[in-house]
Amino acid sequence: MKVSVIGTGYVGLVTGTCLAETGNEVICVDIDENKVEKMKKGEVPIYEPHLDVIFERNIKANRLQFTTSLDEGLEHGDIIFLALPTPEGEDGSADLKYILGVADEIGKKITSYKVIVDKSTVPVGTSEKVREAISKNTSVDFDVVSNPEFLREGFAVDDFLKPERIVVGTQSERAIKFMKKLYQPYVRSGNPIIIMDEKSAELTKYAANSFLATKITFMNEIANFCEKVGADVDKVRIGMGTDSRIGKRFLFPGIGYGGSCFPKDVKALHKSGLNSDYNFKILDSVIEVNATQKTILIPRIRTYFKNNLKDKKIAIWGLAFKPETDDIREAPALFIIDALLKEGAKIIAFDPEAMPNVERKLGSEISYAKDMYSALENADALVICTEWSIFRTPNFEKLNSNMNSSVIFDGRNLYDVDEVSKEVEFYSSIGR
Ligand code: NAD
Questions:
Q1: Cα distances (angstroms) measured from residue 111 to each of 1, 30, 122, 141, 315
Q2: Does the reported pTM lie above 0.90?
C-alpha cells in the first residue's frame, strides 16, 4: 500500500520503517531539514535498538523515502499517518497546534480519497477537530481514524512488528478495510485489531498511560513507606506481584517516571477531566507524588554531606529517562542534576546513548565522561539515575579505587543491599 507518515520522531520513524518492512511504499515527511538530510544519507537520527537494520534494508529496497515536502507526502499516500508532537500546553492540556496545523494543510492539498490516521496521543474529540479542519478547505472525500500508538521506546521495533493489540477508532467501513489490510501482517499470531469509535480509541491511550503511571507511583509510595517502617520493598513487590490480578510488571520503585509520554499524558487527561467538569483526584495525586519522587535522593545526599554540597564532585550514571533510549525528555536525571548544581556540586555524567542530547541542553554546565569508570575519578558520590544493563554488575574494586569515597545513591535499586554494602562505604536505595 502507499503510506505517508507526517512527523518522523520516535513514533513516526518507527512506524514508517516498520510499515516499509512488510512491503508498503512509505514516504516520511518532517519539517526538520537536518533530520531529513541525515535520513536521506542513511543515518538513523535517534537511538532505538534494531531500527538501523530495517531502516537500511528498506531504504535500499526503495520502499522508504524521506522529504520535507508535505505536498509530496500528501500526493503519495492513500493512508496518511500523523505522528506529530502533542506537547504539554501552558495549562497542562495537550497542545494540538501541530496536528491541527497539518490538518489545515491537508484540506488545502488533497485531490483524492485519503485515510488520515492520527497516531499522536490526543484528547477525546481531536478526530472531530481534525475532520473539521480538513473539511473546511476541501470537498474531497476522506476519513479520519484514531489509531493510538502503544510502542515503548527501547522496544519500539519489536512492539510495532508484534503488537499486543492495535486499536482502530473509526466508524467508516471504508477506512476499517484499509486499516485491517495494512495491519494484518503484524497480527498473524492472533493478537487483536480492536475496532471502536474514535472517542473511545483516543481515551484508551490516555487511560493506559495514566494507569501505568499510577501503578509506578503507587509502588513508589509503598517504597517510601517501607523506609519509614523498616520493610523491604523488594520483598513486598514480589509478594504482591505474584497475585495474577496485580502482575509482576511495572512494580519496580525508583526516582519517578519521566519520558515524553507519561508526564504530559497524565496531565492532559487530568486537564481533559476538568474541561468536562470531572476532577480526576487520583491523577492529581499521581502528578504531585511523582514530582517529589524525582528528587527524593536530594535530601539524602544533602544529609550525607552535612548540608554542604559546594564543590563536591558527583558522578551520575544514566541520563536517559529509561534504558535503551537516548530520549531525555522529563528524565529524572535532569531534575537531580539541576538540584545538585543549584547547591554548588560539580557533575560528571555518563550515559551510553543520551550524552549528546544532554550536551545540547546543558552544554558545559556539567562534564561528560567517556565511560562509566572514568566518570568516577575522584568523585565524592555516585548517583544512579537509569538502569542501563552495564551498570548492573560493576567492578567494585575499580569503583573503589577511582572514587574519593565509595558513596552510592541508587535511584533504580540495581544492587542487592547486603552484597553491595560489603563492597562500598555507603549505599542508599529506594524502599529498602
Ligand atoms: P517526536 O518529538 O520524537 O517527533 C515528532 C516529529 O514531528 C519531529 O521530528 C518534528 O520535527 C516533526 N514535526 C513537527 N511539526 C511537523 C510538521 N508540521 N510537519 C512534519 N513534521 C513535523 O515525537 P514522538 O515521541 O514521536 O511522539 C509523537 C506523538 O506520538 C506524540 O503525540 C506522543 O505523545 C505519541 N507517542 C509517543 C510515544 C513515544 O514513546 N515517544 C509512544 C506512543 C505515542
A1: 18, 21, 26, 9, 57
A2: yes
